[in-house]
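Record pair follows.
FIRST:
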Amino acid sequence: MTVRIVAFARIREIVGSGAFEWVAQDGATAGDILAALTTKFPQLGDLTRSIRFVHGGAFAGAATVVRDGDELGLLPPYGGG
């Protein structure tokens, strides 16, 4: 299946693009996709515990199943006041 990954801030810098297509196995979760991305982009390793997912316009957990054609947003740690 093909998923559109939308990367923000530091994640975008690491992967070299704000949005790209990613091929994953059917039934993959957001966490599975992040693990695969970390294999390709080891610099993500330091951020993986803090990355938040956006799926279907809402925050999602690592166990969220992603389907063909879905969009998965990856947000790095952020703060503000």
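SECOND:
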Amino acid sequence: MDKSYEQDAKVFKALCDPRRLAVLEQLRGGEKCACVLLEKLDICQSGLSYHMKILCESGLVASRQDGKWTHYRLSPEGRDRAVALLQKLTTPGCGQSCDCCR
């Protein structure tokens, strides 16, 4: 299987869980510390870590360390890539790199 499909699937995996969608909604308001997400989402530390790992691996979320806490923010590049991927996959064409699909 093409390795790009594995990376593309990570975007959809990140979007298919209600808790991860709630995290994305929280991050729309700007960068948030993990401690804030824990409080607002009523989720345990290990649960948040699991979901944030998936969101970061998808490229939709970026993180940075500040002491013992991790801060998360939406990634504009990840968003643009996800939108382009969805558009590409849902636009009719023959699926080949030919002139009829350009």
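COMMENT: Residues 28 and 74 are 7 Å apart (CA to CA).
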